[in-house]
Amino acid sequence: MTSRALEVIGSAEVIVGYHPYVELIADLTEDKEIFTSGMRKEVERCQKAVELALSGKKVALVSSGDPGVYGMAGLVLELVTGTEGAESVQVEVVAGVTAATAAAAQLGAPLMHDFAIISLSDLLTPWELILRRVECAALGDYVIALYNPKSKKRIQQIVEVQQCLLQHKEAQTPVGIVRNVGRQGEEKVITTLGQFLDHPIDMFTTIIIGNSQTYVEGSWMITPRGYRL
Amino acid sequence: MTSRALEVIGSAEVIVGYHPYVELIADLTEDKEIFTSGMRKEVERCQKAVELALSGKKVALVSSGDPGVYGMAGLVLELVTGTEGAESVQVEVVAGVTAATAAAAQLGAPLMHDFAIISLSDLLTPWELILRRVECAALGDYVIALYNPKSKKRIQQIVEVQQCLLQHKEAQTPVGIVRNVGRQGEEKVITTLGQFLDHPIDMFTTIIIGNSQTYVEGSWMITPRGYRL
């Protein structure tokens, strides 16, 4: 967590967030009013945060990782700018460490060259667009970081992504998988594009797929930047 | 800065880094040995850090932003894994807030959907590959974050990027420019793909180009995630 995030949480009167994320910062919020809700209640949570702010409270709306990367920053700004009377709410977006770079640090240095971040969740995005992005990333030889790769009900997408990538990339391309990055129970494995589906993958997993230059040495996954050594 | 970065700097005996970055944390390093060097001395700095670590010192090698995104993490791991006798050096990569998400937070929420990060520096990467990546990102309708967009000597690349993007994207596509993000003298402007070259751009600038859904409302640049409001 950044020092700015700590400051903002410390000075807030109300904490709003997805229940498991608010639980992760329980030691910072003992003296505060708390409003939590469950999965897929994003709109409700953000509306609540905006309402509370309009009533004069200092509100911290908590996302995991960086709130501007598939987090709540966009929804709050959509509500504040789109709701009659809400324009007076002052919003600060506090940047954080997004899962891709947090996972990269555990794996070594896989993101040292141009990379693409793609969420495989097709709840809000047509699957065809997601798959097109995967293909474009492969054609551009990007390192690729996948968010929300798989859930209990959504198990086929990651298989299609692997098939798509294998048409453009070597099966031996290094792939790093990190689960629960930065949290209790953090696990990581370095494997290959051909084999990575043999490992456990869920919604708490970030997957990083190397570019054509990425290699594994010892326990590190490294994408060289191009310096001559 | 994250609390882990503060801890690691606090416990280090030697600080190694690019001179201006080490200067930014002068108040944290008063009691420490310092080794700094100038631009393009990356290999020398990392070699020095590895040598110092091999001599038994606790060394903090400082990058700005996230060290795993065009920073020094990769070079250190290349040296540690590739140098005879250096395998015994213990390395921890400390993730940070990379310029793209720091800049995004200042602009609003432009990175709420899939995005590509591209460095326009062609010192270590063929220009043709960089331009191919720009085109692939456009074809995939990614939000695009550009690092190192322009330097005193390197002024033509950003013009070619604009030309390439204008073949695939509307001239009215929102573009956010942030200079000195998170530092003294931070400046930002929200403009369009057709007009953004009229604004000052240098090596301390991060540029974020919206996808086809990105819009500007008030002083915010917002890429909707797709929630129904």
TrEMBL record, chains A, B:
Keywords, in A-Z order: Cobalamin biosynthesis, Methyltransferase, S-adenosyl-L-methionine, Transferase
Enzyme Commission number(s) of this protein: 2.1.1.131
Domain Tetrapyrrole methylase per the UniProt entry, residue ranges: 1-195
Molecular-function annotations in GO: precorrin-3B C17-methyltransferase activity
Domain of life: Bacteria
Gene: cobJ
Gene Ontology biological process terms in this record: cobalamin biosynthetic process; methylation
Record has Transit peptide as a keyword: no
EC main group: transferase
Coiled-coil features, chain-numbered ranges: none
Protein name in UniProt: Precorrin-3B C17-methyltransferase
